Amino acid sequence: KVGWYNDVLQPAFHLPYPDDTLAFVVLSTPSMFDKALKPFVNKERLKIIRDPVDQCISHHLSCVKEKFPDQKVDIICDYEILPNRKPKFLAQTAAHVAGAAYYYQRKDVKLDPWGKKKIYGVCIHPKYGGWFAIRALLLFPDIQVPLLEQTAPTDCVSTEEKRIELLEQFNFHWQDWRYRDIIEVKERYSEEQKAYFATPPAERFRLLGL
């Protein structure tokens, strides 16, 4: 429910919907690269491609929207920003309140070793660890769900030591991917996919043969 999200954030970040409005958080799993992105790029080859992943996600979400011709469906993608440069929604907070992935933050560590350093939080999925992405929100403004019960996300990095290790790796060594394997995972990015996301955006077209 939108209210779960708004309840944990300052008013500046609130979504402008009633508290009981139904929303879905959309995640992409490791197989997205082969099952969605590559076929999309092959099909769209002759058209203008700006950001293949963003356009692929947008394409698939518009297909979802078409499945609900009688419903108003609002889509907010993770890359969309407001005129003041703030994101339109805080993806990790949304994933946490939806029960999709646990958002580990500095406040989840009792004995904080970082002093004055800025420490960013990160979501971990119980099945995919850090090998996933939060892509969008689907909102159904005309559907109110007052009786929907909130499910807590799975706390899969439950020890203090592991949480410190996770936040250390994510904040200071994120390029080496280690934080994504903080837990045992069922599936991870392929070498090809890792190469794609490790490549600067301007050079990714070459990797896709564009």
From TrEMBL:
<dbReference type="GO" id="GO:0033787">
    <property type="term" value="F:cyanocobalamin reductase (cyanide-eliminating) (NADP+) activity"/>
</dbReference>
<keyword id="KW-0560">Oxidoreductase</keyword>
<dbReference type="GO" id="GO:0071949">
    <property type="term" value="F:FAD binding"/>
</dbReference>
<keyword id="KW-0846">Cobalamin</keyword>
<dbReference type="GO" id="GO:0032451">
    <property type="term" value="F:demethylase activity"/>
</dbReference>
<keyword id="KW-0285">Flavoprotein</keyword>
<dbReference type="Pfam" id="PF16690">
    <property type="entry name" value="MMACHC"/>
</dbReference>
<comment type="similarity">
    <text>Belongs to the MMACHC family.</text>
</comment>
<dbReference type="GO" id="GO:0005737">
    <property type="term" value="C:cytoplasm"/>
</dbReference>
<keyword id="KW-0274">FAD</keyword>
<protein>
    <recommendedName>
        <fullName>Cyanocobalamin reductase / alkylcobalamin dealkylase</fullName>
        <ecNumber>1.16.1.6</ecNumber>
        <ecNumber>2.5.1.151</ecNumber>
    </recommendedName>
</protein>
<dbReference type="InterPro" id="IPR032037">
    <property type="entry name" value="MMACHC"/>
</dbReference>
<keyword id="KW-0170">Cobalt</keyword>
<keyword id="KW-0521">NADP</keyword>
<dbReference type="GO" id="GO:0031419">
    <property type="term" value="F:cobalamin binding"/>
</dbReference>
<keyword id="KW-0963">Cytoplasm</keyword>
<keyword id="KW-0288">FMN</keyword>
<dbReference type="GO" id="GO:0009235">
    <property type="term" value="P:cobalamin metabolic process"/>
</dbReference>
